[in-house]
Structures are given as structure tokens and as C-alpha cells.
Amino acid sequence: GGTRYFRVYAAPLSGPEGALEGLVMVLSDVTRLRRLERVRKDFVANVSHELRTPIQLVKGFSENLLDTDFSDTEQTRRFLKIIHRNARRMEDLTGDLLLLMNLEAGDGPGLELEETPLKELLAEAAGMARAAADKKDITITLSCDEELNAKVNPSFLIQGVFNLLDNAIKYSPAGTAVELRAFAKDSEAVIEVADQGPGIAPEHLDRIFERFYRVDKSRSRKAGGTGLGLSIVRHIALLHHGSVEAESHAGEGSVFRIRIPG
Ligand code: ADP
């Protein structure tokens, strides 16, 4: 549905004496092109918007600092912490942007899919998430058959699973459990990350995989989110010719599921 856009090409048809005898018109449907231009513009606008706040904070607090004589070490420390936190935010954002661009261009570090035992790979992703989990007293349990293999790009898949674990930890209350499990089903390898967090309301479920879409902006920012984590996971699943989906009932936690064809 929605509006469609057309580009019109017209050329006159002249007769022997140069008299105008007709007009040839070509209508070409440029709706898709328009939509792509729109997506690109929105993306650039979003990136600028995301960068503006940390840049302003770094600028403002460094100016504040330069106006002082640094005698108040408590205050100096506080300002430096804000500057450091916001520099990190920009680092995370540019890092995620670069990764996303590479994934979209399909020219990441080696796209070969190799038959890989999943258990080790999942253990590595869980290891990367451990420090954040420990801070919140969250336990990550791993269940995966030793025999389970899939055709994957190990470094990309580790990144994808890590992003899901990272979210599960970020959005869940302290002291809860996160389950990482993988199994074979209908010739697919299925990887699930289940948490006991707040869950996601149905109207948001389809949209959370969009770039910069957040259910709760301030919550995501406070947790250190860039808003790109799940769109990165979606791209990684697509590079494996697979898919990612979320299942959740508000108040009952969420399950994220990556499917990789056999
Ligand atoms: P962010 O950097 O904001 O976490 P993501 O793309 O990773 O960006 O996730 C998009 C949004 O989806 C988050 O802002 C959050 O609202 C929601 N979300 C993702 N994972 C979970 C989860 N495990 N539990 C609840 N909400 C989640």
C-alpha cells in the first residue's frame, strides 16, 4: 500500500514536415528508489542526532573544566568522568556503525561459513558477557549438545550471540538468570537466549530489530546501548541465510532465537 512515485519521460514525435504528431511517454515507478533515499536520509539524521548529545556534553564539561583552576579535585574528577563516559559512548556508536556497514556491504573479515561445533562457540560468547553478568549477579547457563554443528562464520556468530546476551544482562534485574541454549530442529540449528527481564510489549516486538529503535530511550542510554545491537544481530543471521526473532510476554522475560539452516 502507500503512495507510489513515478518519473515521467516524454519525447515529441515529429512528422515529415516537423509537425508534432504525437508524444511518447514513459512512466517509471521510482517508489523503491524513493524509499531507499528516504531510509538513507533518516539514517544519517539519526546518526547525527545520536552523536550530538555526547559531543555537547564533552564540549560543555571540558569548557567548564578549563574555567576552573582544578583546585576542587572532587569536581574535576566528576567532570572528567562525564567526559570519559561520553567519549566511550561515541566509541561504541562508531564501532557499531562500522560493523553494521561492513555487514551490509557483505565484506566483513571473511564470509566463509565453516562447519563448526556450536558449544565451544557459545561458551566463548558467554565468556565475553561474564564480566557484565557478574556485576549484576546474573548467572548465565549454557546448554548445548556436544555434537551440535552448524555452518557458520565463528567470529560473526559469536558477536551476534554476545549482543543478545549483552541485552539480556542490560535489561534484566540483578540476581536473575539468563539461559543460553542451542539445539537442532527440522534441519536447523536454533540458538536461544532467554532472560527473566521486563519483556517486550507486542507492539514493539517487530520493530526492535530496526536501527536505533528503542522501547525506552533513556533506559537504553543509561544501560550504554547504541540502539544498533539487534540490527547487527539481524544482519549476522542473514549472512548465515538464517533469521532472528523475539518472543516475549510483558513481565515474563524475553526469548531471542537465531535460526541457522543446516
Ligand atoms: P540498545 O542499544 O538500545 O540495547 P538494541 O538494538 O540492542 O539497542 O535493542 C533495541 C531495543 O530492544 C532496546 O532499546 C530495548 O528496548 C529492547 N530490548 C532488546 N533486548 C531486550 C531484552 N532482552 N529485554 C527487554 N528489552 C530488550
From TrEMBL:
Top-rank taxon: Bacteria
Ranges where the Histidine kinase domain occurs: 46-262
Residue intervals of the PAC domain: 1-42
Protein name: histidine kinase
Section of the entire sequence shown: 333 to 594 of 594
